[in-house]
Amino acid sequence: MKFNTKAIHAGQEPEKTSGAVMPPIFQTSTYAQKAPNVHQGYDYARVGNPTRTALEKMIAGLEEADSCSCFASGVAAIDAILKTLRPGDHVVSTNDLYGGTYRLFRQVFEPYGIEFSFIDMTDIDEVKSAIKDSTKLVWIETPTNPLLRVIDIAKVAKISSDAGALSVVDNTFASPYLQQPLLLGADVTMHSTTKYLGGHSDIIGGAVASSNEEFMEKIRFQVKTSGAVPGPMDCYLVLRGIKTLHLRVQRSVENAKQVVDLLESHPKVEKVYYPGLKSHAQHHIAAKQMNDFGAMVSFTLKDDTIEKANEVMSNTEIFTLAESLGGVESLISHPASMTHGSIPREVRLKAGLTDSLIRLSLGVEDAEDLISDLKQAIES
Ligand SMILES: *Cc1c(COP(=O)(O)O)cnc(C)c1O
């Protein structure tokens, strides 16, 4: 099955009792048993729910994974992955990381004795020298947020597996429509389903997918034991969102490219960050490992002040000033004060995230409207 067909059919079958084409929202906490432990595969809804199962099978299909577990949020999915580690274990992670992931690593898991190295993963030599005997996990996020650097998944995954560590890719920014980490050699892929998979800015959710059965067994143990599970209504909404994933992402990427053209030629714009640009430092890697270059765009202004950036962001009418990404509506945001507010300024600047950087998440509106909105906001 090819991707667009999978987005509709992967793991889906009509509901058994009625033939309903979409899985019902199984709003239940428990399931009747015929005799103790004699049931139809479900005993308690923290452990499993048929609506959730339908979503998990779908995401496993899209990510070419043998199985998937869904969570109440993206960070809950990351939390479950990190809890498979033990004190003394070491994680190699990118330094250009989603702010919430960074906070979870530094403020929750570091105090429990997990050790982290935050490195520039676009530099393969840095990856090699960061690996230690105790390295158990290599955490890849690509394209990165918000600077849209691209990490070579195949190369980093190879270094990781040679060292006996698991490689995990946070695939939220690309979505499986544009990038399938397991096919590139990564062990695990995870999502904030809040973003492209859900696609409509109406739920919070997460997912972990892998074909490493030993690892997924540990994840299912986390699902059952820590219990950060999504409700059936949210699972239904993500599943519904996924049915148009390919259409939405395709249009969003087209819009991103047109917006990039405007920004590149605009006299008030200093620098545009987009993996599709030939001038992008890892353009060749993006071209190799992604099906297209994504719908996230960042840029800085020649007037490199936080005041000017604030002015632009407050002046857009179609772009909504908000955190998050991957929905049908275009969003504009200021990483330094919003998504990355919890990262200390020195750390941010060292990673290249300046005070005036503006990030766009392109939605599926008409490109002409988006362009004229951005133009008037920049010129105001
Ligand atoms: C949003 C996001 C997360 C966290 O997901 P939530 O659903 O908000 O908990 C993790 N990684 C990336 C790249 C994200 O964009």
Automatic annotation (TrEMBL):
Q: Which InterPro entries match?
A: Cys/Met-Metab_PyrdxlP-dep_enz, Cys_met_metab_PP, PyrdxlP-dep_Trfase, PyrdxlP-dep_Trfase_major, PyrdxlP-dep_Trfase_small
| Cofactor field | pyridoxal 5'-phosphate
**What EC numbers are recorded for this enzyme?**
2.5.1.48
Q: Which residues form a coiled coil?
A: none
**Mind telling me which Gene3D superfamilies this protein's record contains?**
Aspartate Aminotransferase, domain 1 (3.90.1150.10), Type I PLP-dependent aspartate aminotransferase-like (Major domain) (3.40.640.10)
CDD domains per the UniProt record, alphabetical? CGS_like (cd00614)
Q: Which domain of life is it from?
A: Bacteria
Q: Does the keyword Transferase apply?
A: yes
Task: Indicate the enzyme's highest-level EC class.
Answer: transferase
Q: Name one GO molecular function term.
A: cystathionine gamma-synthase activity
Question: Which SUPFAM superfamilies does this entry report, sorted A to Z?
Answer: PLP-dependent transferases
Keywords assigned by UniProt? Pyridoxal phosphate, Transferase
Q: Which family does it belong to?
A: Belongs to the trans-sulfuration enzymes family.
Name of the protein this chain belongs to: Cystathionine gamma-synthase
